[in-house]
Amino acid sequence: MSNYHIKHLEEYYQVYRKSVREPETFWEEIAIEHFMWRKKWDKVLSWNFSKPEIKWFEGAKLNITDNCIDRHLPTRGDKTAILFEPNDPNEPTEHITYKQLHERVNKFANVLKEQGIKKGDRVCIYVPMIPELAISLLACARIGAIHSVVFAGFSSTALATRINDSDCKMVITCDGSYRGNKTIDLKGIVDNALEDCSGVETVLVAKRIHSDIQMKEGRDKWLQPLLDEASTCCEAETMDSEDPLFILYTSGSTGKPKGMVHTTAGYMVYTAYSFKNAFQYRENDVYWCTADIGWITGHSYIVYGPLANGATTVMFEGVPSYPDFSRFWQIVEKHKVNQFYTAPTAIRALAKQSLDFIDNIDLSSLTVLGSVGEPINEEAWHWYNDNIGKRKSPIIDSWWQTETGGIMICPIPYVTPTKPTYATLPFPGIQPALMDENGEEIKGNQVDGRLCIKFPWPSMARTIWGNHQRYKDTYFSAYKDMYFTGDGALRDEVGYYRITGRVDDVIIVSGHNLGTAPIEDAINEHPAVAESAIVGYPHDVKGNALYGYITLKDTGESRNQDNVRKEINQIITEHIGPIAKLDKIQFTEGLPKTRSGKIMRRILRKIAHKDTSNLGDTSTLLNPEVVQSIIDDAYNDK
Ligand code: WT7
């Protein structure tokens, strides 16, 4: 039996049991059979969650680009590896075959070497969603440089913090980027950032929008002429399995961002394995993940996971609303996309639009619909299922984190029966545990608690760059010998998991433990509601009361807000119980969001606490302007 590709439910249970009983044999078989190694490992796994120290495939030698590119050349050389769909629909699609990808990565890798980049050096990549972005990651990996991608929508302050935290020697960027009908001056942002980054020696600049930019003598170099001169041969560096592959920053609940460090072999094995199963990818399928490569979703499921399987992966430069809200669906039709992976925030934005944007588009190629990034509420789930999947494509609600490197809890399409708002069952090799307040594991079903993982999996982050103590404190100190996820979850009667939201978002009202996600789900069922966020605020009798920030749909009709308030509380009462009713409801124009679309509850919580003295850095928000308008309205006592 091949453990690599699971095709029915019984097989899932068998494979899962094996992965728990004999994890080392399980992963070793997958690693031997499906990857290219320069030297095999001496030991599959050694681990200690109290230090913490985790090593997979110790002693093995490899290069991840051998696995993502070179080994496909004999059989898939002319197959499209990356299908680039530009922002402007009138600009032609670019098909980059595996052979071309090999050449372009090698050239880029040679440029990095000529510019003095060596194995172990950190290279910051601040590039929009154009082919050079994917290629630059792979070029770093080819020579053993550690890439640190910063989403090309972050401000110069955020960029500078990240460059300095990991002492990057080089920045790769672009003159500017397209975003719908706007252009963004990326190089200007880099210039500002670099005023505070003395360690950066070289800036490589790709051309995209052909804007007139400043080039700093001695530091800034145009990329294309260097590529033109470079050789297409670049022997891949031999890496140890535990050599860092990349750093990716994720925001903590407090303090500066955490540079999560992912290493080579385990990350490769797990992202490839999970990609194959989560999307049931078959040869010749076209797979599209709408995330940006600036996030872990893009690293694992646009670049490494798909390419390690020899897949065709779509890279889309633009936004779902340009030229209009049919763009995603136009792309699906144009390229006959089979697997489509997006975020609930995008689904909700699209669900607010008229169905005319979908009606005349052929979506029949779709076989799998994915969701990631936050809990998908029931209404959005059904909209996605009815209108995009036409009730024939399973929705895979995939729970994971920057720290986990790959998908952890997720239905396997056509294998695991789905259930709205449930991420369902753990992937093989993943051993979840629910913990109570006293640090005890809660066994059995129909229970809820704090979600931990009790055994290592290959793609877990190994440390926080430059701060191993913080890694230990954040993830391994709350519960003994457990990785703590920071999320709450419940396990239903058949063992399915539902992620109930960050534990720091759990609010205790009159001694009842209330997750914000189920309350928001209930509110979002109201036909007038577009989006909502719940936070707690101090209350004399209950300890905490609930404050709801709610955005209504813009339908042009006028509404009696007091009636809507009553109706919302009625729905909550129906779905959860009167205990979860909101004490305050504030209607807002929008909700403050991170660039990845997550609602910044921290800010909303402060406003609800009437404490706006220290809202922290709001400059990296997607929509910083809504913060002031929420504050103004909140204190008008509406
Ligand atoms: C946090 C991790 C995983 C890539 C993108 C986000 C939340 C993520 C789900 C889901 C419920 C989810 C969790 C998690 N989350 N996916 N399917 N259902 N919650 O990565 O920025 O590191 O965020 O996102 O709270 O801890 P991230």
TrEMBL record:
InterPro entries: Ac_CoA_lig, ACAS_N, AMP-bd_C, AMP-bd_C_sf, AMP-binding_CS, AMP-dep_synth/lig_dom, ANL_N_sf. Residues 519-598 form the AMP-binding enzyme C-terminal domain. Signal peptide: none annotated. Its EC number is 6.2.1.1. Gene3D superfamilies: 3.30.300.30, N-terminal domain of ligase-like (3.40.50.12780). It comes from the Bacteria. Residues 72-462 form the AMP-dependent synthetase/ligase domain. Keywords: Acetylation, ATP-binding, Ligase, Nucleotide-binding. Residues 12-68 form the Acetyl-coenzyme A synthetase N-terminal domain. Pfam families: ACAS_N, AMP-binding, AMP-binding_C. SUPFAM superfamilies: Acetyl-CoA synthetase-like. The keyword Iron-sulfur does not apply. One of its GO terms (molecular function) is acetate-CoA ligase activity. It is an enzyme of class 6 (ligase). Belongs to the ATP-dependent AMP-binding enzyme family. PANTHER family: ACETYL-COENZYME A SYNTHETASE, ACETYL-COENZYME A SYNTHETASE 1. This is Acetate--CoA ligase. It comes from Gilvirhabdus luticola. The gene is acs.
